[in-house]
Known about the structure:
Helix content is 38%, strand content 15%. Strand 1 (44-47) and strand 2 (50-53) form a beta hairpin. The protein is of the alpha+beta class. The site of glycine has 8 residues, from loops.
Amino acid sequence: MTNNNHKYLSVRVILKNTKLCRELFRKLKFLFSIKNSLHSSAKFTRIDGVLYHNSTRQFCLVLATITIFFSCSSGPQVNRGVIAEKGMVVSARAEASRIGTEILKKGGNAFDAMMATELALAVAYPYAGNIGGGGFMVYRKSNGDIGALDYREKAPLAATRDMYLDNDGNIIPKKSTVGAHAVGIPGTIAGIFEAHKKLGSLSIQEIFEPVIELAKKGVVVTQKQERRIKAFQKSFLAANKDSILLTKNWKENDTIKYSALAHTLERISKNGRDEFYKGETAKKIVEFIQENGGIITLEDLGKYKAKWRGPIAFQYDDLKIISMPPPSSGGICLAQIMNGIEPYNLHEFGHNSVKAIQVIVEAERRAYADRSFYLGDPDFVNIPVDTLISKNYKKRRMDNFSFEKPTLSKDLQHGNIEMFESNETTHYSIVDQFGNAVSVTTTLNSGYGSKLYSNELGFFFNNEMDDFSSKPGVPNVYGLVGTKANEIAPEKRMLSSMTPTIVEKDGKLYMVVGTPGGSTIITSVLQTILNVHEFQMGMQEAVNQPRFHHQWLPDVVRIEPNRFDEETKKQLEKIGYKLYERNSSVIGKVDAILVLEDGRYEGGADPRGNDTAVGF
Ligand code: GLY
């Protein structure tokens, strides 16, 4: 892409500062890319999903020129996603987005919809939606008040620093990832009740009712879900004493009824939060975990509390970014990366161009190196938050960056690293008809968490203990290396990468954004914001774009398979970057909402999953 830069340098100089002209610039660039691809020897060329025969190339070029001329004269043309006027929910499953939206239509607010959507995901998306896990919420009320809720899991009272090490000090394989030993004290039920107590408006029963109905009526299996369930069935059988609901031979279009979960939800709806932490459900949880060799007790559940935290807020150009503070690393890392790239004109470099990728990768490398050393549960460790997110600090950190060659991660800090594993979590974004916004990321950690499933209670338990650093310098399932700040201690919360984020522009709500993806969460949120702000994309278009990721260690740039052009990859490799392009994995699955200039909402639901935006 950068090869084309000289061709429109003069246009760029004149035009770069107005929004309309920035759009023209993007379109001219697109035009040159069409032209280049049409000059290739391929017989057919795919442009925006349409196959063009090369014999039509001159015609296409003229047509594209005319289209651009007229579309620029009437304002930017962007491929939009679902548009709504009053409210919207974007989540990993249509059933959950619909239930959340129905709550809004009933007169509920974004916090009522949060409770309903979270629970509906626990039914319709057991891969990551949960009541056996935890999460984080960032909110912005219509009056501009902001806040963050931490309902992250905690280590049990009997947890010890070396609980996943053998007598020789080596990590015991799978102990922190599979089965009852991997489970942290779940926070989801405490979180949604806490949010509701402070900010909700409908009754608990009104919110639970459609979710219980969904669990009883059942959820239709999608093609992606059929594949996923099949892929995990061996692990389910290995982690559980008996077969479980999801070890049946489910096929696309079958309906899975979640009757046991419906009963658990009915009890919680009737008896409230304490049903899960002190009541019959709590007793069943403890019995089940201990039967399977785990260490969670009734005292652990009884002591669990969700916590309100002050969000991380910082400026990037004319945007104010509001994100999750520790025990998530999300907000701090996002601030560090954005501070690192702010002085560079990414827009001029071009979307996913070699130079833009270099700047972002080098800022990411430095932020993740700091993450590993400084970040942990703020109730246990002192974190120099103000310094880490200050513009000066990041400027100093970027001082040794050069476009000539990569900074090697080993020169920033040591660590012996293996490769990435797959990972899952889920995110949803909500705006309501009153102007409140909610950004929530919730997780069981890996797909289906610890794979431990209670047939009686109807849900999976998390394997969040693996987000602690079991042994300094040894990577967890995301390849992330930790140090003392994130070592295990009783009642401590494990460090997270979840980055539920809200963006303001000119003091008004602008974007609600977040994603699953373990360590790639932060960089996926970053690129989605940049796609809108730097490259003038609409919300859906921004979500659809190919993503890349660097996390300090391992020292590779991970890129989505088959989505980056060969020339860009070649140039990056020539400069010295190691690319990692694995065929089976996507980076992030972003669900986001953009406030358009006319005040309507545009949803961006990630096509990488079954994600769906529903609005009204
Ligand atoms: N379990 C993934 C995260 O919290 O980052």
